[in-house]
Amino acid sequence: MHIYRTHNCAELRDTHVGETVRLSGWVHKKRDHGDLVFIDLRDHFGITQIVTEVDGPAFAVIEGLRSECVVTVTGKVTARAAEAVNPNLATGMIEVRAVEAVVQSAAQELPMPVAGEADYPEDIRLRYRFLDLRRERLHANIVLRSHVISSLRQRMIGQGFTEFQTPILTASSPEGARDYLVPSRVHPGKFYALPQAPQMFKQLLMVAGFDRYFQIAPCFRDEDARADRSPGEFYQLDFEMSFVTQDDVFAAIEPVLHGLFEEFADWQGKGRTVSPLPFRRIPYREAMLRYGSDKPDLRNPILISDVSAHFRGSGFGLFDRIVDGGGVVRAIPAPNTADKSRKFFDEMNDWARSEGHAGLGYITQKGGELGGPIAKNHGEEATRALIAALGLGPDDGIFFAAGKEVQAAKLAGAARTRIGQELGLIDPKRFEFCWIVDFPMFEYDEDAKKIDFSHNPFSMPQGELEALETEDPLDILAYQYDIVCNGVELSSGAIRNHRPEIMYKAFEIAGYTREQVDTNFAGMINAFKYGAPPHGGSAPGIDRMVMLLADEPNIREVIVFPMNQKAEDLMMGAPSFVSLKQLRELNIRTVEAAKS
Length: 596
Description:
Helix content is about 30%, strand content about 25%. The protein is built from 19 helices and 24 strands. The radius of gyration is 30 Å and the shape is globular.
């Protein structure tokens, strides 16, 4: 018999009754019933109930165990009485009657319990992450993550992609987020940077002739945390393809994502559906108008409308002045709100103000009867014309976001989401994918008072060099695209600008000299001068995909050892001070941070 186990803790069934077995694991729970003592023994695979009588040979050891002690138990498999069968447990038909118990490792009093899913403060959970990971939900999330990565890898290989690894120590880039820098010992005063993404390397692989590349790539960005973004590091399904159009990229990756989400749609019995292929494509400007966001949640049926024309010269002076001054008015329907009191509408207005906006105007309806100050000032005839134009029913309310187009779109999009949540319109049983396409190549930077890139500077402009030379930069679209699921952006991507003359011109419009391009992007621009194929790709985020599949609201719940909001690893004590000897070896002297 093996020294630690003959079976794992999820393996035994009623077919094993009468066998002598050995199990090892952690004490999940212990219950003292007077003449009997029960423990639930847990390992990676599951739980088996162990039982001993007070006069049994293993009682002395088992009676002294506390939660999370590691123990090896030898005993005979017996069938549970009918009334004691646990249908919620894979091993619920049997129990093991202990004849021997050996403590492998004792556990101190726990800083947080492992059994159960009670919520605990983040600092405790992260400081004792090794305990947190023993909890059923989190343990399952990490197993799911492993399965997702394995599935992605096989699906990409099945699509003809080859896996390569790109460097972790590379050069700092002036574009994008803030780099993590690594000092060089052998080159005093110089620094490597950890890659924000393998962007340039994967494009260089296409120049090198490898055709279809992918990688489960670690990426490093010195960014602040969000619910869907982990500070410090994250992983993405990075891929690139040669001799492709935008349609070819979509055709290659859509089956991978659709197949993955279908494979795990019923994870832990959640029974979800996935939007059919091909995924819907929504131009950026339409997304900003109809959804108020470039990452719309298509499970929400609410559509935003521009109603500026209805208020030009109207009796509602505030909106009239906004429209006359070049602003817009956006309408967000609130369907079937006749049973909602005025408090619901006022609270939405208060919420908008708490988010830094001027507020949300509204019109109420109950059986066609109009309410609210906008309806009163706008006039009944004009209000009914507005309602008819929006195709609303007699019990549908309307909220309004007004102001400059960017601000009004942002407020309308946030209000659309909040209304959908408040009214229970968002179906949790669906995964709705879409592509956002036709992003503008450039935008006007109000702070810098100049034209700048709006999305990805290395994208191919639609119309190529001719468009850059003849069109208003703010009218030029790019072959850029985002893949979005349930309001979460999984990745950005693009057909790349592979021709040096187009790249120089695009950067010139954004205020860069030819010399700056040659200096900052030397590796890529030089390679393009020796024959580069048309190429494109994307990089869906692994962490975000697992977060969606696990139905978790925060990305930290699907990462094995995440940092906290301040980019600190509380368990390992990172970042930390290092010795003067280490600093001298790196030719570094630290300085005190400036006082705020």
